[in-house]
Specification:
The protein is an all-alpha fold. Helices cover about 80% and strands about 0% of the residues.
Length: about 60
């Protein structure tokens, strides 16, 4: 699934903090994944508290 790859790319970027905001912006811009899908994977990967503020700022 496309959104799974996209959200996993964002999760990886958030963990390493490299280009995290740009990766998140790109996924949202391309509509590769919805904010809900991004947060779903963030919860699974235990990075919800990191991604949440970035996602809220972009929306």
């Amino acid at each position: 699934m496309e959104y799974e790859r996209s959200t996993m790319a964002v999760q990886d970027a958030m963990r390493s903090r490299q280009s995290a905001i740009e990766a998140l912006q790109e996924v949202i811009r391309k509509r590769a994944a919805s904010p809900a899908q991004i947060m779903e994977f963030a919860r699974v990967d235990r990075v919800e508290s990191v991604i949440g503020p970035y996602l809220r700022a972009l929306l």
